[in-house]
Prior knowledge:
Layout: H1 3-9, H2 23-50, H3 58-70
Helix pairs in contact: 2-3
Amino acid sequence: MKFEQWWSTGARSPNNPYKADSPAFWAWEGWQAGVGIEREACAQVCDEIANKPSNVVLGVALDCAAAIRARGEK
């Protein structure tokens, strides 16, 4: 997700511990957006591994991708 997409969605972290619109608030929001983007990038690496026809660990790669994405649900 590009910065502009994240910014325009208006999505904010529900567990932001800082006062709204303070510098710390926005630093937290940016950090959380970056974490989500990196998590998805890592999961996509697992997806790519799983999509290789010669891969004998298809289930492991798919489980890996699901586990990475699930970390964002906590």
